[in-house]
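Input for the complex:
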Amino acid sequence: MPPIKNLNDVMVGLVLIAISVFALVLAWPLKPGTLDAMGPGFFPRSLAVIEIGFGLAIIAQGMLKEGSPFERWFPRQIFFVLASIGFFAATIDRLGSVVAVMGTVLVSCLARRETRPIEAVLVAAGMAAFVVLVFRVGLGLPLRIWPWGYVY
Amino acid sequence: MPKIDRRDALKFALAAPVVLAAGRLGAQESAGAAWPTRPVQVVTGFGPGGGGDIATRVTYQAVSEVLKQPMVVENRTGGNSLVAAQAVLSLPHDGYAFLMNGLQQLVTPLLMKDLPINFEKDFQPVTQMVKYPETISVAKDSQWKTFEELMAYAKANPDRIRYGTSGIGGVPHIVAEAIQLYGGVKFRNISYRVAPEIARDVVGGQLDLAVLNVSTLTPMIQADKVRLLAVGNDTRLEQFPDVPTLAELGLPKANHADWGGIFTPAGVSADIVQQMQAAVAKAAKMPSAYDKLAAQGTIMVGSSTADFTAFLANWQGIVEEVVREAKISL
Amino acid sequence: MDSFVSLFHGFSIALQPANLLYCLIGTLVGTLIGVLPGIGPLSAIAILLPITFYLEPVSALIMLAGIYYGAQYGGSTSAILLNLPGENSSVVTCLDGHQMARKGRAGPALAVAALASLFAGVFATLVITLFAPPISQLALMFGPAEYFSLMVLGLIAAIVLAHGSVLKALGMIVLGLLLGCVGTDVDSGALRMAFGIPGLFDGIGFIPLAMGLFGVGEIIRNIENGHHQSVMQTKVRDLWPSREDFRRSWPAATRGTFIGCILGILPGGGAMLSSFAAYTFEKKVSKQPERFGKGAVEGVAAPEAANNAGAQTSFIPLLTLGIPSNALMALMAGALLIHGIQPGPRVITNNPEIFWGLIASMFVGNLLLVVINLPLIGLWTQLLRVPYHLFYPMILVFCCIGVFTVNNSVLDVMLLMVFGFFGYMFIKWHCEPAPLLLAFVLGPLMEENLRRAMQVSYGDPAIFVTRPISAVLLAVAAGCLVLVLLPAFRRTREVAFQEES
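Predicted:
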């Protein structure tokens, strides 16, 4: 086994292959059809196969060709930023925009240890007010403001 | 709760530009009537700007004047109207949410398996809102001058005539399938995402035949780029007195006009259903609304709930037969 | 010179105080909507459509059109400042515009975007005035085969967008095409890779994908360690473009305008293709293509000009043929229909006040936009002074609310989360998301038209070369491919030779 020269490329190749195998499995039941009447499966299947080919080629490139160094990942930042979006998704429908927006700001602030709580709370309150004023009052979008009451 | 209702309604009326229009009406509180005391939502699976959307908006503009409450039309496209239907069912079943739908209401359950909702049981019909006559047309320079010539060619050359449809299981598609089924011919079906592209490709010579709602075809008729061979409607159209209906041409079972109707979740009181039906019927008689839609070939109906229920039962039979005989499947 | 007499008549309509006011409201609302990520002109116009019941048809159209091009305009602001592409046409602006902002040159980037748009807007208005009816025929000459070939050309061009490995760009393109397959198959109605989730029946939304890959990934990257925190705090150096900037942007904006005018007329994907095409073209003709992606001012001027020109010429097929070229034009058609006016060839003869009033208002609106936006540049750049550790939560909120309001869909917000992770992953592994996005948008169109073309031709692939326009497009695509692959191939060989020796 030759040493990997560019881990970035190898990882990209692996992910692309994983995604295309998954897509191939999902697209398998779809009919490929014929040339003058292509079925729904034709495009996804061919693409998945082509993509596996590209994935392999990218891995090969990573084995043979020097590239930029592999960078460290930061789990805390990844987790809290994504979690703040998840919080928004979980609350916007049922609990309304005030809860969702404030929660998103507070959760995302956890991604950075140095942020002072008072700053976070002020930004959260400010954003909640801004969102309600601009999106609900100004643009009239059907957004729930509080956890109670009707949207319209 | 009523306190919150009013407060929210008031906020809305003060705030949203959507109801700038309705703001004028909002001032006059609905006198005595228990319904509607706040804005009513009408959800449709038709995309903004299309024929179904415009018909809904024009109709409900008039309805909001009748009921003295804002009517908020919302587009939730996707899944052959499934997304819109689900959106309506997810709201409280209190008479403040309605669904505007077409033949998809009946066809979607026939074509899609494992639906999360039951269109027939979960909804009750309110009224037929509009109808749109169908047109069968070819390009102006086409070799076929009449419907008979077209059918004669199609009989001799199966699978040669290319026609476009948008929306599997929509009325244009069912009409086209019925022409093939009962006319004993076979066309080549080419699917499109939106109807205006079909009109474009017929004129551009990519397609031989178009089955479209009259409103979609009007620009091309005005530009004198297409020839009408037949219409799908109970009578000939006023604008085209020389064009025969499909029934006159010997295909009564293919002679259908497209339609759009109003539904509400099962369990909403008969009183509210009746009030909404009456409001749509009244709106259909307002020239401000009727003339606007008539200009593009859409006819406002506002039939009684009993008539609409019978109309749906009749259509159920038609689509079941066509879907079964023509072996339409997804 | 009849057209100019009519245009003059148009100005007398557009300059009436009421219409001027609606034009101003439209451009203001449009700018605001464009700046806010997520909610785009489409939802804004859908929301405002009912109001137009109460306006004169021409006022209604002037206001809605103002929102449309105002939003195109505002979209570039958030793309440059925050790396958030609010709509598909501003994806390209992110590439070099945001890099300029990172170097403290947000002011010049915004100013160049504004001036290029103005130039393109004015020029496109003249094009519509003089040539609307004849060039509308172009839309009729494009059938399935031509569209397929155009999409192929667009995808080949996407490789040029990336400045890393060609192979990885190809991988991203195919991934984009695969993602574009999700949802209901137009031809058969079958569901593909949708996991039975109704929210995916119409496919993955563009907004969560674009904002996740560009915006969210970049945020995580920026806060991950202390070094990156000063990223956005580089001193805002200058507000106004330098003489050098002007020298570089004028030719780019001119070429972009031409590309935009032509592609805007073609239904479907025209506006987005035009900004990509203009960028690619600039990169190809540039003497220093290596500057692109690192804050080249041409990389802002060309796509901004193209996208604004395309936005205006996309009215041509609607007003002359009654064919809406995209979802937004379908809404405009709706606005006309609501007033009982059938969009199509009779608009010019039966309702000249609408046709010419609208065109003249575009002229006025573009001027208004510059007047509104130039003073705002100072304000926007001030925004960048907010400490990043307080700024990024705000951007996240905008992403979430923007994505949510497009369809009121919680699923879309969850997709934002997923694609945010992918965005971070791609940054870490040096993959560029722009080709993926282009492929995602073009893929479904490409597939549909391929299948349609094969059905129309009874299964004969020769249709792509026997139809002249299609053949020319494919030849150009092949030429591009050779141009792109040759240097890469040469480099690989050099590397291989070096290793051998």
